[in-house]
Amino acid sequence: MDITLSPIGTIRSPFCDLVDMPIQPKGAGETLASIEIKEQYLEGLHDLDGFSHVYLIYHFHKVQEAQLSVIPFNDHTNTQRGVFSTRTPMHPNSIGLSIVELVKVEENIVTIRGVDVFDGTPLLDIKPYIENFDKVEGATRSGWMQASLEEVSNKRSDDRFV
Known about the structure:
Helices cover 9% and strands 28% of the residues. The protein is mainly beta and 162 residues long. The strands form two sheets. Strands 1-2-7-6-3-8 form a six-stranded antiparallel beta barrel. A two-stranded antiparallel ribbon has the order 4-5.
């Protein structure tokens, strides 16, 4: 089965070097960015501005080769982990996912806050965050990942996935 995906737009962020970027939206804080939506998808932005947050689904276009085992940024033990238990960009299909704050929508420009994405990243889709659909209630587990919120917020990328 062949799957063909075409970008609906481009993410424009202040991050132009893959090293020293935030590794998750929590580390991006107040960082503003924009998404340039292609004209043929403009109608799809109708009503989006009523949501506080959105999921961005994008293509890690700088990934050269997938890896099935990696040492993630937030693993203090430097242990090789299966790529599917990580959020590294090295997954076989190089698809990224971030939840960001939606600031505004003006024509084909979507302004977002808290972005952890490289400038020029192809955007595949936008989906609204809906608390009643998406919020996980009760106890959750984070597997091997034991970093605190502060550690995650302060962690920056290095050159291991460049």
